[in-house]
Specification:
Nucleotide-diphossugar_trans; alpha/beta; single chain; TPR_rpt; Spore Coat Polysaccharide Biosynthesis Protein SpsA, Chain A; 584 residues; 26 helices; 12 strands
């Protein structure tokens, strides 16, 4: 068979990721070769379900050596190289079609999507050389951040429809890998100080660890010394350098860099976006808008340019909206925020801005009508976001309405039940609220939070003994024990007319926070029906304030609590009558 393809991988302790990776690629390749460098979990067992070509290689601190060992055991005419925490996405047979379409091409750069924020769909896209002919001229070089050596640039093609997606990595694991990489990169740079690829990677690692000051000189050196023959390194060096300068507050330098780069790379979306950010930070809003507009005009940049998804669409629109607000044009800002949501309805930040605009200028009910008319309440994640904003700003009844639309109610999840239940309770609909919360199964991630709101509903309806019984049941759950202790003290206070047993109260800091959290829930109560007040609300609130006032820590926290409430009102007042007060 011509153009056979081998998936060649090196792995170590990848039991959590390996199966998903192999599942994504198994139907696209003819052979799977896995080299294990010292796993102590069941990685080898999982690998054995997909291939019998499994080898062990003693780890020597050299990634290229391990990968070249895998190449030597691969019989395919082409090599696909993946890491275990990556997934392959393409149409059936697409890999084979790609390697067969041009005999002059010896290697392909593939897009690698690295998630920035999975919940909002933000990711960075890089072009990486992962598909290449299996010949003696093609091999890996570099002990760390190894690269495939291809001697003829004209023999490298692009395959944009074969996408590799990196899985989200926990912060702890990411930092562990960065620490390991830094050590190896420092050693490699010491041995080869003029290797600007290594300097690029050093800058990336430092930036990833939140150390932009350490990252800047390496990224600057990489950008200034790498040529356009290595655009897939030079462009990310440029983008990360701009990010560094912004992070360090060196906005003038970032703007100068952006102006210089825009002349040389006029179709590079990300540099317009990042320069716009620098101008925005300097309150040069009019100029910032022009740069964001250029980013939108560019859209998706040329394939070799590393790109942050959204820089030419929803991210740029959102920041344009912010700038227009600060220039006193909330009408234009509103349109920009809407464009941002239209481009990506998983990017929720414009929702908060739209909410504040509508609330400040038209009031809560008109704001609700606006979101409903726009269709935002038909999308469950957006509806949840909008509902929480209404609840936070003191409108539990409208929060409840956000989650009772036909589309949302047809796909009821534990999350929706939880939020709907608590909104109903604080809108005065106790019975329906309790029904919603009681539908949440005990093993749900929302179960513990739900039981706290159930207890508050019982307190606010005067069912003190029932609340006490529920608190005793909560006591059995170690995570709920501090809240249970606080509830039991409130119940004793109410049942004994203000006389409380001393007993064990737990740490002062922990208990003060529990009482404060319960007080905050009381302040969310606003019944739908005028005059429909709960007689116990004042009593429960008074008890909580009295308990908090028995310690200096409690008094400090209580004072801060009410100051925050005042600040929230002032913020909305300023929002309405400040820079954005022209009208929408």
């Amino acid at each position: 068979m011509n153009n056979t393809i081998t998936l060649a991988m090196i792995v170590k302790n990848e039991a959590a990721n390996l199966a998903a990776c192999l599942e994504s690629a198994k139907d696209q390749v003819d052979e799977v070769v896995i080299v294990d460098t010292g796993s102590t979990d069941n990685t080898l067992e999982i690998a054995g379900r997909y291939t019998d070509k499994i080898y062990t290689y003693p780890w020597q601190g050299d990634f290229s050596a391990a990968r070249n060992y895998a190449l030597a055991r691969s019989s395919g005419q082409w090599i696909l190289s993946l890491d275990a925490d990556e997934r392959l996405f393409c149409e059936p047979g697409q890999l084979r079609k790609t390697v067969e379409k041009d005999e002059q091409i010896e290697a392909y750069l593939l897009p690698l999507d690295y998630p920035v924020n999975e919940s909002t769909g933000e990711y960075n896209r890089f072009m990486v050389l992962r598909l290449f002919k299996n010949t003696k001229d093609h091999y890996f070089a570099g002990r760390i951040h190894e690269q495939v050596i291809i001697h003829k640039n004209e023999a490298v093609g692009f395959a944009e429809d074969i996408i590799i997606k990196h899985q989200t990595v926990s912060q702890k694991e990411r930092n562990r890998k960065r620490g390991r990489n830094l050590k190896a990169l420092k050693e490699a740079c010491a041995a080869d100080p003029q290797n600007f690829f290594l300097q690029y990677y050093l800058g990336v690692e430092w930036l990833g660890l939140g150390k932009p000051a350490r990252a800047q000189p390496y990224l600057e050196s990489a950008y200034r010394n790498l040529t356009d023959n290595h655009l897939h390194f030079r462009m990310p060096a440029l983008r990360y350098l701009s990010t560094c300068l912004n992070a360090l507050g060196k906005f003038d330098e970032a703007i100068c860099l952006g102006q210089e780069a825009a002349l040389r790379y006029p179709d590079y979306t990300d540099i317009y976006y990042l320069t716009g950010i620098a101008l925005e930070e300097k309150a040069e809003y009019k100029l910032a808008v022009k740069w964001f507009e250029e980013a939108v005009k560019c859209g998706v940049p040329p394939v070799l340019y590393t790109h942050m998804q959204g820089a030419g669409s929803f991210l740029a629109y959102f920041h344009m909206g912010y700038c227009w607000e600060n220039m006193g044009r909330p009408d234009i800002a509103k349109a920009c925020y809407e464009q941002a949501l239209d481009a990506n309805n998983r990017y929720y930040y414009p929702v908060t801005s739209l909410f504040l605009l509508m609330l400040a200028h038209h009031g809560p009910r008109s704001a609700f009508a606006y979101f409903e008319k726009k269709g935002y309440l038909s999308d469950s994640p957006l509806a949840l976001c909008i509902a929480e904003l209404f609840f936070t700003y003191g409108y539990p009844g409208l929060a409840k309405k956000c989650l009772t639309g036909s589309e949302v109610s047809r796909h009821v999840t534990d999350e929706i039940l939880y939020h709907l239940g608590r909104y109903r309770i604080y809108a005065g609909d106790f019975q329906e609220g309790l029904i919603s919360l009681e539908r949440i199964p005990p093993d749900s991630q929302f179960s513990n939070m739900a039981v706290t709101h159930r207890s508050m509903a019982l307190l606010l309806t005067g069912c003190v003994k029932e609340c006490r019984n529920l608190a005793l049941a909560m006591w059995k759950n170690k995570q709920l024990r501090p809240t249970a202790r606080a509830l039991l003290r409130i119940c004793r206070f109410m049942l004994q007319n203000g006389v409380t047993a001393s007993g064990r109260q737990g740490s002062q800091e922990e208990m003060v926070q529990c009482f404060l959290d319960l007080l905050n829930l009381c302040h969310h109560y606003l019944p739908d029906r005028p005059g429909d007040e709960v007689k116990n609300l004042k009593q429960v609130t008074s008890i909580l304030e009295r308990i908090l006032s028995t310690s200096s820590k409690g008094i400090q926290k209580l004072d801060r609590f009410y100051q925050d409430k005042v600040n929230l009102v002032e913020e909305l007042f300023k929002y309405k009558f400040g820079a954005g007060g022209v009208g929408v």
